[in-house]
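Summary: Need help interpreting a holo structure output

Steps to reproduce:
1. Submit the protein chain below together with the SMILES for zinc ion.
2. Request a joint structure prediction with the ligand placed.
3. Inspect the structure token block that comes back.

Expected: a single structure record containing both the chain and the bound molecule.
Actual: see attached output.

Input attached:
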Amino acid sequence: MRSLTLAEARERAELISVTSYAVELDLDHGDQVFGSVSSIAFTCSSPGADSWVDVKARSIESATLNGVPLDPAEATEGRLPLTGLAADNVLVVRATMAYSHDGQGLHRATDPADRRDYVYGHLFLDAAPRVFACFDQPDLKAPYDLTVRAPQGWTVLGNGASHEVAPGRWQLATTRPLATYFVTVCAGPYVSVRDEHDGIPLGIHARASLQEPLERHAPELFEVTRQSFDYFHGLFGIRYPFGEYHQVFVPEFNAGAMENPGCVTLRDQYLFRGAATRDELLSRANTVSHEMSHMWFGDLVTMKWWDDLWLNESFAEYMSHRCLVEATEYADAWVDSSIVRKVWGYGAERSPSTHPVAGVEALDAQSALQNFDGISYAKGAAVLRQLIAYVGDDAFVGGLRTYLTDKSYANGTLADFLGAIERASGMDLTAWSGAWLLTAGRDTISVDLEAPEGVVQAARLLRAAPPSHPADRPHALDVAGWADGTEVSRVQVTVESEVTPLDGIAGTPEPAVLVPNAGDLTWARVRLDEGTLAALPTQLARVPDAQARAVVWSALIDGVHVAEVSPATFLDVFASTWSTEANASILTRMALYAEHRIVPYFVPRDAQAGALARLARSGRDLLGRAEEGSTRSLAAARLLAGTSDDETLLRAWAEGSGLPHGLEDDGDFRWIVVRNLAARGLIDASAVDSYRARDDTLQGSLNALMCRAALPVPEEKAWAWDQLTGHHARSNYEMVHLARGFWMSPDDRLVADYVARYFSDVPAMSGWVGEDALSRVVLAAFPKVFTEETEALSARALRRDDLTPAVRRSLVDADSDLREALASRAAFASVFRAGV
Ligand SMILES: [Zn+2]
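--- attached output ---
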């Protein structure tokens, strides 16, 4: 299918204004296809001109333009030509569309728990024509009237309030003007909990088999929703404009959530069926608030073209954290951001695929998708925090309100947004935005300290721009130091040159731990000094400031990835401090990072078992001390379950005996145990099947696929590879779970043959898997055999010219991860030979 180019979009927007859409969907045609009738009223500024409508149908039954039949056979590559447009036009397209299983378009999934089917629309970024004929570009907004025929007993939800006007016939209220990619319909035997706040009807919905967790989590979900509405109403000065507010928890969702006006879709793993840690609840609250902030920024005012997509995401990423900190119980949301979101963004910045936050020409819609990453979210939000430090919060909020008011129900650009901030602040942002928004890369910052007799005589903050992306980036940041748990220094500075004196530190006691960017206000690589690195095992746990501890962990991760810090140092700090970590986000995320990233990527193969055993000891240690049922207890149990080689313990837990309090009936926890047993070859496929039978749910069946793929048996690897790559119509989630399990092998020889096969079989899947889903599969399935042979094959694959944009982008990133692992292993091989 051709992807819409910027030039085409501009030309069509000059020509066409859409007055309204009326869309009829018939979802009562079985589980393969659905009927779609799209009636579009639109005007043409240049009567007689030609254009086209986007429609990606299984078949087009008929089409008429102003009553005159069009030939459906003329549709090619998702476009039906329209010739001789009148000033006022009505186009009617009747088509049969296919349900998707890759999370793009109208996704249909069967719940294994009760064999009931669920449908949801995810039309981002260019999937709207897979559901109805439309002019699919973000600046052709129009109101929608939707009617839906659905099997009896189904509930239908969408952007406008829905009503069942006759059995199985649903009508949705006319919407405000929406961009095509925001239209959604969710239909199925969804169960609901409803509420109301400040005149806004609220609903949350999920599969029938998730009714219990839906009801259990409803109070907290509504609480965050209410708090966010109040906060954003106050901050933006504009009422929520889209009527009812529904949040639908849907199966097999690719992203975290999608900000469809009035009808947000969220991945239904957020309805934790078992125990959840505090940071998992924080993360969910963050997503809820993120999507709500989009109702104003993104939905009410939409970017004109995809190259400003970053602005939506940077803004929502910033706003949700601000809202959580100021209006909810999650006052430590910025700590979570440091250790979750910014670690992700820094990873994107290290990859050769890095790009400026803004100003990347998206010449077509699909190429825009490739820049939708940790830079758009995490770096963009950090840059907005720097902008606020630069212009002041009053000017930022004032400019923002003007922008949202001036562009309501229309489209805006980066220039519009910055212009509003410039007018509100009276400042020229040209140089600032050139350095921060239009240039990729990040500075490295470090502190040079002179403290000859235990007292600081002089200190300087050093800023070094990456040679590949030079820029004069001004930073507002702080530097803080601790000794034996006491904060001995803290200074705020504005960094505007390569060397900035830290006069405020002179005369203070020499710190044991010195943290540049301790408050994590800026975006930079923090290089810790040698003294601090050496002191961390004994000192880090005593630093009382969770934000600074998060910055230290993030700096350690960066250091390992660029082969400056030994993974052994990371594991030493982990072993000596993790079990006393009080912040939930740091605690759980560093355990996951150690288990799933540091050990498999950076620790040599023959030292991995020892490193995992060490992690298991930390888990066992904390489990013995943590309060029952607490986040600490849960994090400890999960770490132990995932890393332990204690077969007796694992078998007991898998069978449900001796489980830590609160995990007695936790299906997700049992799968961590079963996965460990499977990867070690301590159980076989029939045992995996029996655990699946005990958990006959969507989560259960996905986990069973992963565990079976993890079995270290040649026949099972062959089966898993065939299921993954062999055109078995596996869903997006099934493919990712198969891929994750596949490389969990204690012996590289077992999977060695699949390294070369990966580079031919997986890119070929672009023939039947959508780009969004495939980009995740390419990453998950990338060989975890870290050798020079893999590196050579990867390099050769990247020279191919037949890769789709998503496949190429994910390959670049996975290749970068592989190179980092190899570089670190080469640099620190002697550390592990000596034994850790
Ligand atoms: Zn978003």
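--- end attachment ---

Reviewer comment: The chain has a mean pLDDT of 97. The pocket of zinc ion is lined by residues 259, 290, 294, 313, 316 (CB under 6 Å).
Status: needs-info
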